[in-house]
Amino acid sequence: MSSWERLNPQLLRHFLAVSRCGSLIAAAQELHCVPSNVSARLRQLEAQLGVALFQRQAQRLRLTPAGTRLLPHAEQLEQLCRAAWSSVQEDLWAGELRLGSMESTAAVRLPEVLAALHREAPRLDLSLVTGTSGHLLGEVLAGRLDAALIGGSHEDPRLHGEAIWLEELVLVLPEGLAPESLTQAPVTLLGFPSGCHYRERLERWSERHRLQVGARQSYGSIDAILGAAAGMGVGLLPRSLLELHPRGRLVRWRSIEADLAAAPTLLVRRRDAPVHAALERLLELLRAEPVPATA
Fold first, then answer.
1. Residue-wise pLDDT tens digits, 113-147
2. CA of 30: how far to CAs of 17, 57, 215, 221, in Å?
3. What Gene Ontology molecular function terms does this protein carry (predicted)?
4. pTM (predicted TM-score)
């Protein structure tokens, strides 16, 4: 038997506990044993390796150079053991999935998809956070979201984005307001707060048509925007939303130029994030979701 084959992986568990806790007493508490047991296991590991792994400094145990080199291998072995256990003991789709979405996407596109995911992964703890595209990008980069559905493109090299849908944005305005009259008097622009991709396109549309903007109003919900659009201003929203939302009948809408109307929805996540089984299944369901035809 080779020397490395005599190495007992169980001893590495005690080595990791001491390296993390810094003392035999604290490591023993973590391992639910007595300090003398931890000390004996460390001596056994050092004897097998033929090197000292710790040195005492000011009432704490510090890693030696050899211990420092051993540490990442011990951590990797611990992760492999956990993965091996999970592969046969746990539902691969259990755990937590933190998803972000634009408000309009969450209202129209996600209910059926998330219901299908729940049927397949009933033990999955899923949290859905809505917000503007700019805010959601920041949450994904910070690691507080596993992925997010945003409007438009992104330029951050740390993120991977995949186009899921292509929405058609349409101009929403009060029932009694003729589109031709928008250039004759100041108008109020309605939308989600700053950072919303649809709001940015509304600004570009108003500049292109040289509208006189009298005021800009921000709302945090679709209902509020549709309510305001029914009587006081104009906005841009996905046509699919207006066709399905109960308040869609309160407003009128008209098509706009194709370059501003075509708005892709992307799912973004960090490139360096580990594979998330539930997220991969969600992606499959999202790709299979039919996209309504647009005129």
1. 999 999 988 888 999 999 999 999 999 998 899 99
2. 7, 21, 61, 48
3. DNA-binding transcription factor activity; transcription cis-regulatory region binding
4. 0.64
